[in-house]
Request: fold
Amino acid sequence: MAQKKSYTLIRTRMFLYDRPSEEKEITGTLEELTEYFSYTLEVGHSYKSSIPTKPKTIKGLVSAINRAFDIKNGGMTSVELKTA
Reply:
């Protein structure tokens, strides 16, 4: 059985005033990352049904998470795919 591909996402949280931004790396398969961000995806989907809760590709997941964060946190948090 082939091993599933692992991805690393970088979550950046921006703060107001003098607090520095915070970055965190999250690594896992598409399914593991979808589970990790499931609450954010559910919140985004509840406000805008076009945001999928189970995206089929990593690019779709990153897009869905960012659209959900726009709704949930007013754009103060974002996610990007880490490239080698």
In short: The first helix runs from residue 30 to 36.
